[in-house]
Amino acid sequence: MGDCIFCKIISGEIPVKKIYENDDMLAFHDISPQAPVHFLVIPKKHITNLMEVKKNDTPLLGKLLDKAQEAAKELGCGEKGARFVINCKSDGAQTVDHLHIHVLGGRQLAWPPG
Ligand code: DGP
Q: Ligand 1 atom closest to Cα of 102?
């Protein structure tokens, strides 16, 4: 997808601090961290947002969540937990139109969101 920032990150055109990569996904630190731990897990397949996920993508979603959990534990969030967020479209405050899971941890977060 030509103008997608996350596709450019996947292709290596835009550098990031990588946490994990395989054929299906990439995990990397957020450029604007909102917590001591803040990373993103994205599929390499360009899926615009959660509303666009097809039934045959559900195994991929499972893999993304599994990696989000594993990396959160590796980064020290296993005991106290973390927040796993998927912003979707304009009401969900999504700014990058490529599906991504935010993982935020390392501090007490507030709820509900503003
Ligand atoms: P969202 O609002 O859910 O679409 O969040 C997109 C996130 O992507 C936001 O927290 C900042 C992050 N982000 C955007 N561009 C870049 C980039 O070039 N590098 C990295 N590491 N993160 C980025």
A: 3
- What's the CA gap between 61 and 40, in Å, rounded? 13
3-state percent breakdown (helix, strand, coil) of the chain, nearest 5: 25, 20, 50
Does residue 100 carry a catalytic annotation?
Answer: yes
Q: Which domain holds residue 61?
A: 5-105
Asked whether the whole model's pTM tops 0.90, one would answer yes
Q: How far is the CA of 31 from the centre of ligand 1 (A)?
A: 6
Which of 4, 8, 32 best tests ligand 1's pocket when mutated (most atoms within 8 Å of CB)? Answer: 32
- CATH number at 28 reads 3.30.428.10
55-79 per-position pLDDT tens digit: 999 999 999 999 999 999 999 999 9
Amino acid at 48: T
Our count of domains for the chain comes to 1
